[in-house]
């Protein structure tokens, strides 16, 4: 099966341009040995390369490329399959865009190809190539420094709050902050239900009978609010997760939440109810009525794990949340994935137009954070800054430039 990988990258500052011809010559030899062909474009700053060949061979070559120190910010734009090679004449043909005039450069590149259709049938790989040649994609480039550009340092002077309340029944909670890294502030705390041994929410709910899950989900928030009071969250917002159907199956759900918020000297305006997008909502009208009741009482509404399920845009249009958290599966290695970058940029643009706050959740790598910050996201949650901690507010590791 003929596979295609297409990527762009940034030339490292310490690489002399006179080595580019040598680079192409070595690539030719390696690629020929693997039956891989393609084209390498260079515009003075960025590389754009298309690789074609047997899938395993293309993957092997691409992994070698990713480890090459002569370039950085390698972003995979396309991974696809094709019936024939688009550039099949050489293992790797180098094309310096600076040697051609603006009016003729695209055709000069296409003339290197071996496909008989060129742009006739809107081939995606060739459309990427045209966009690069015509320099129409630069507004979407976010160049980030290497990961070791930052240290992440825990503020030793910050006080760490712990909760000594006994559990009300089997309910336990871990707390994880949402932070503004450059503002060096905790903007919100999330209370995450845990099993007695610290297991995940999925582990906790798996131990319950199906008919007991929604009642337990709702009643556990009594413990979350009591712990938040003892931890002294003051005027910070507190996010609690609810299964969407907990608001539907239990008719008095919103009234219960309001009673427990008031009993713990909290106010509805500082509470955010998060529902997970990938949970199936089977009674949408009743769910919408519950959301209206929440909002009317002052409680904010958020969609968690946005992008993980099947109904993200539909939920966004119908329920207008106050904030969303982008799912970890989209955040993971976003600095290396063109498709993920395009999705995040679309989410940010859409939510900006709707005045919906965006949080990047599950951030674990400095490169992820740097790219997301460049894309216009300012609030983050994840192990890079602070791990969820049972019965306590964890200390935050703030970024400090080396």
Automatic annotation (TrEMBL):
GO terms for molecular function: blue light photoreceptor activity; cyclic-guanylate-specific phosphodiesterase activity; FAD binding. Pfam families: BLUF (PF04940), EAL (PF00563). SMART domains: BLUF, EAL. Coiled coil: none annotated. Residues 2-93 form the BLUF domain. PROSITE patterns: BLUF (PS50925), EAL (PS50883). Residues 154-402 form the EAL domain. It comes from the Bacteria. This is Diguanylate phosphodiesterase. The lineage of its organism: Bacteria, Pseudomonadati, Pseudomonadota, Gammaproteobacteria, Enterobacterales.
